[in-house]
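DATA SHEET
Item: assembly model
Revision: 1
Owner: S.N.
Input lines:
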Amino acid sequence: MADNSEYAIEMLGITKRFPGIIANDNVTIQLKKGEIHALLGENGAGKSTLMSVLFGLYQAEEGVIKKDGKEVQINNPNDANDLGIGMVHQHFKLVQCFSVLDNIILGDETVKHGFLQKDVARKKILELSEKYGLKVDPDAKIEDITVGMQQRTEILKMLYRDNEILIFDEPTAVLTPAEIDELMQIMKNLAKEGKSILFISHKLAEIMAVADRCSVLRRGKYIGTVNISETNQEELSRMMIGRDVQLVATKEDKEPGKVILHVENMTVPSKLHHNNAVKNVSFDVREGEIVCIAGIDGNGQTELVYGLSGLENITTGKIELSGKDITHASIRERSTSGMSHIPEDRHKHGLVLDYSLAYNLVLQRYFEPEFSTGAGFLKKNEINKYADKLIDQYDIRSSQGAVTLARSMSGGNQQKAIIAREIDKNPDLLIAVQPTRGLDVGAIEYIHKQLIAQRDSGHAVLLVSLELEEVMSISDRILVMYEGEIVGEFEPKKTTPEELGLYMAGAKRKEVGA
Amino acid sequence: MVLLLQYTLLFASVLILVALGGCFSEHSGVINLGLEGIMVIGALGGALTLKYINPSLPKLLIVLAVLGTSILCGVIYSMLLAFACINFKADQTLVGTALNMLAAAAATVIVKSINIAENPDNVSSTVQYVTSKKALVVNIGKFQFNWFMLVALIALIASYIVLYKTRFGLRLMACGEHPQAADSVGINVYTMRWAGVLISGLLAGIGGIVYITAGVSEWKFENGVAGFGFLALAVMIFGQWKPVNIGLAALLFGFFRALSNVYSGFDFLAALNIPGSVYNMMPYIISLIVLALTSANSRAPKAEGIPYDKGSR
Amino acid sequence: MSAENKSTEKISFFARPAVQSILASLLCIVFGLLIGYIALLFINAKGATEAIITIIKNYFTYPTKAAALKYFGNTLVKAAPLLMCALSIQFCYQAGLFNIGAAGQYVAGAGASLFCALKLGLPWYVCLIAAFVAGGIFGVVVGILKAYLNVNEVISGIMLNWIGLYTVNMLLSGVKETASPYTVTLASTNKAAVLPSIGLEKLFSNNKYVTIAIPLAILIAVLLKVILSMTVFGYEIKATGIAKDAAKYSGMKEKRNIILTLFIGGALAGLGAAFLYLTGYEQWSVTQSSVPGMGFNGIAATFLGGLDPIGTIFASYFIQHITSGGSYLDKNIYPSQISDFISAIIIYLCGFVLFFKYFLNSRIRNKKNNAEGGNK
Amino acid sequence: GSNNAGTATTSEPAQTTETTEAADATEAPAAEETAAATDMRVAMITDYGDITDQSFNQSTYEACKAFSEANGCDFTYYKPEGDSDAERVAMIDKAVADNYNVIVMPGYAFAGAIKETADMYPDVKFVALDVSEYDLEGDDSDFNNETYANVFSAVYQEELPGYMAGYAAVKMGFTKLGFLGGMAVPAVIRYGYGFVQGADAAAKEVGADVTLNYAYGNQFYGDADITAAMDTWYQGGTEVVFACGGGIFTSAGEAAAKVGGKVIGVDVDQAPTIDGMYEKGMTVTSAMKGLQATVNTLLSAIRDGQWDKFAGKIENLGLVSGDDTSLNYVGLPEDSTVWNDTFSKDDYLKLVADMASGTIKVSNDTSAEKPSAENIKVNFQGNIK
Ligand SMILES: Nc1ncnc2c1ncn2[C@@H]1O[C@H](COP(=O)(O)OP(=O)(O)OP(=O)(O)O)[C@@H](O)[C@H]1O
Ligand SMILES: Nc1ncnc2c1ncn2[C@@H]1O[C@H](COP(=O)(O)OP(=O)(O)OP(=O)(O)O)[C@@H](O)[C@H]1O
Ligand SMILES: [Mg+2]
Ligand SMILES: [Mg+2]
């Protein structure tokens, strides 16, 4: 083929197998020069795998990769780098205790006699950050900076290496709305500069907003490529899932009942700084309503939930659950008194990754008489039966059913398992923290339905979400958190994302009574 | 006083060298519990060199030859750890423990075999190095300066520079903190970890010969190195995996160790009439207390102890 | 997504975890002995074959059956405490803790049981309890430091090993023989503290050291197996071990579990010491300047036993068997440390077990995949 | 380690008392004796130390081996798996099973094992070293110096050479003394307490102001820790240290060399070893006991069919003659001791005579935890490691 190929990168007929699974099955995608090419697919469809093949982290069993029309071998990230391919990984690959600068130069250091020339690097980074509007402090440590800034670091890492082909694997999953807008702009700028971009996202709106074309994968197989200008969200989701998806949740109006969760003047200390993370917060959640805590990441939502669930001790205040004072109750007591908690970090808190699915499904109930004898023995049969029931009822997919290791399950199904476990407890109060993060639209639809079902059956739901769209579509009441305080209370029907955004950013506030 | 200083420096030198060894290994992501064993093997190499070298050679040459063989032995022995833990993803604590047991047994078997081969009547596991050992020390007044003190100081400074000022150090630490990140920017994690472990073998090997020549002119290899490798690990943790802090921690530990031996020279301490066992326990009790007070925000390399698997994310 | 094979599918013989563990351990043993044999060849080629056979034969080197039985008993007597130390390490390992402090907990158990037996004149069961508690307390110290102050259990364990040694030496100085550093004998001081033999000694040519310690140790191993795999407590311990945060999230008291685990671990090691010292087999020397190796050898037995209590029973016996066998070597030719050398090699090889299993599994999978591919 | 302070050297034969018999042993045996000797199969069993302990086990091993080679009889040694009666008994059983008929056991620790096996193997000849009647019979001892019919045990009166060394040191003019024991086992303690008594007596005699540092190293080898402690002693003014235990002299010698200090050796004449390693004249004397000689005597007696003279006896070996020191089992080396004006060889001979005659009494009581003295100041430091 000619050197002046239309395509920057072509991945032709790629097949990549993992033990027991074909992650990519004869997949072909072609990335035009200067375009933003979206890659769409359910959880576990094989997007990350395909990109890892392109970046040299994995080797495909079959297929060829061409750069500018010429066949290339990419055996490791070094080869990818040499070819001008850079990648922002789904899970950031940043060394927490290093500075931004160290992370950027890592692997491509300027040295003199083996000694680092950090000043040279700093100059170059500042220039780049100026040019593309990527604001970072080169000397800040990664562990001290926001997720958004970490992402900018990742992008700078690619630019620092003069990469021409940029891969973004789910870059927006962890960003705030403002940061997402910023990122979209940056991507457009980069494309304008002539860089070619591969962009993975589960958020159709984002794809519609920035991409030129979109390729869809389903269960490892290539489905097709469409021009964004000629398609819509419905078509995309149909391609991805194979059926129509309800993208915006619907629910009926419902009059809330009596107070289930009553929080009064709660203050929670912070692990990171001397300031309190949650300051003197008061609010109620009632039967039959979904109350949503909105806010930009890092404004105390995590700690608020830790305080409620007992993962962290609160310094002052009072918490009541269904009229019972649980301020000083243990985590277990709260759980048995009717509180369920879908945690923010499903790998850290939500699952014992090396336990079987069945064991994970009874993580909150193994001690109950249903699953253990008075003498302290586990009733394994009961546990397995119960697990099979939940697997069936909640459609949790895994390779071997109840005995599958939780670790080997896909993120979406892991989340489903947690949700099944927490909801099947039939809690008075369900606390769900970012339950849809990183999941595909099909899974999101499913989870939203479950949350609404809880509400409809008269339970209280407290939802913590960073995504305004989600907040607007499923909540009955919205509380905005800013710097550890509740700075506003809204009804979704009587507000706009723009208004919420102002409160979330701390530009406006109003007093809220409990 | 001079004695206290001299032995503080001597013990601190051993601890600095070995703890720095541990530091390099752990920064690369491999917990090296086998330091004790590496010390023994390093000591064996150095001792045999001292035994066979012509004592009339220039002193500098002797010092260098001893350093060289100790390093060589330490490095070779540490390969056993690197091979099992890096390439075969073995449990690092287990392999480290095995290396400690193996070193003591192997060193004894080797020395005994050598001794018997030389003289069938000599069944001891002792290596003597009376004359050549004199090359290692210089008397400055009452203070007996040991060249290895200088070696330890150089190792300390070099470690600081290597870890914080060079490309190698940056990459090494990245492998111990987040090997996937290092891999994704084209750093070969396995190579770096090998480097970390071999450097720990190098330093612990020197530590071994310093320890056995610190006070005597012969060593009985059945006795290993009496827990110094483990003490060095405590020093490393107390020093928070940072060379300068390790230096200070080693001085502190060395001080208490020295004090437990020379306290009888201080009238007020002798007058206290504390049982000897209490002084012996001191370094351990103090380490424990110090660790209890400092570990809450201890910052071990994040990925240490976890074998790196290219496939996993 | 994932292949949907049902778990009902028949698992092939070599795919069974238990089979793999046994196979792996046997391989370690074979390679360990082989390397030991090579070392023997190096030292003296002529006697090497006989020497390695001697090590393997252990008590069978005695010509009479009675003597062989008696020394079979002796091997068992020492295997029991080794098993206990191995179980201690294993139990903690299940909870994600490397209890290298087992050696010190063993020392504490020895100190407490002998003190109760010799100084206080208490009967054997009280001495057992004392050892259990003393070992447990040493474990608890490690546990508290770990749970509340984030002190690495390996380091604190090592420090406590030394502290325990010196403390016990001081403690037992009060009950030592006047003219030697050994503690006075149980038989002469307090017969009631000697563990009962319930007729077991008869089975081993009247080996008076064969006591209930041996069946008790085996019983405890079985008990641990049951606790770990079948009980709520085991469920919690393992969850705490592999996912501390998830354990906390689910309302388990993870700090309490860490401390409790180390208490039990320590108690097991402590009990192990009592199982040896209360038979009268050995006296404690109060000038001992290094921690008894039992705790460290326990690490070997644990891993050789495939981290399974039942496997550990056999592994402990085996390690003790070759250690005892080593004492029958012809010392004129071979240093006695050669059996330590072989044990150490075997432990080192145990490090490769995980890889071996992984290798085996991927071979099995490949074979299966190929077979399936062929069917298509 | 081991249960004795002895230091063995391969090159130096112990300066012994039983010169005649010792000499016989190494000479080619006469023809008719060869038959007896080949029937003799000698096994030695170590206590928990190895034969490399530069001490009791090593001396015994060397003596046995030399004898066996000279007499063409089979010899081997066994090392028990651990430090317990049970394991020592196992080795005795094994030795008998392997057809050894003379078993040499150095160390009081063998008492328990002998009690278990002596009656079981009446045809085997047990030669024990340092196993006292009290060790064997406990509180029921009648102290008649008799024991099992097939056992002979030799117990040394280490307090005597210890006394001589202490006495000599003070008389030689030293006023700052040190005692560095190995592990605090009976033999070491006897040496030490004797040393204190001797220094005490001499101090009284000359009216000197004497101080004595007293410590155990808790091991039979030197290392940096012990050298540091010795440096502290020597640099704090200590002039001479009695290094009493295996290889622990290396620490004393190392420290002494730095300040020109002196050392007293133990068990055998250590002057050649220590002076050879450090500097000439460092070793002022050695407190000796005739361990290897005893082994030789016994093995020769068995070879010569004289076992009955020894069987069933426990002998306390110490001073035999006040006049002929060559007959004694303990003493100071007459050739290598650095005699001077204040303590000449004649003074020594007088001391021996007085001790032998009972004019001077040395207590062998080691029940006290610390040594005590009336005329000198003893700084007891216990175990320094
Ligand atoms: N290292 C691996 N080993 C085994 N299987 C793997 C591995 N990585 C991915 N897989 C499997 O390959 C499939 C594709 O995974 P991949 O990460 O590419 O999905 P994805 O499309 O990026 O999903 P998500 O949207 O959740 O990020 C999954 O089913 C997963 O189970
Ligand atoms: N070592 C592995 N073996 C098998 N499957 C794996 C392995 N590692 C990851 N996977 C699977 O790969 C898929 C993609 O995982 P990935 O880490 O990309 O994100 P995720 O699971 O969607 O989680 P999240 O979005 O929360 O980060 C998941 O199905 C996961 O279970
Ligand atoms: Mg992905
Ligand atoms: Mg994902």
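QC remark: Residues A 47-48, 90, 169 surround magnesium ion (ligand 3) (CB under 6 Å).
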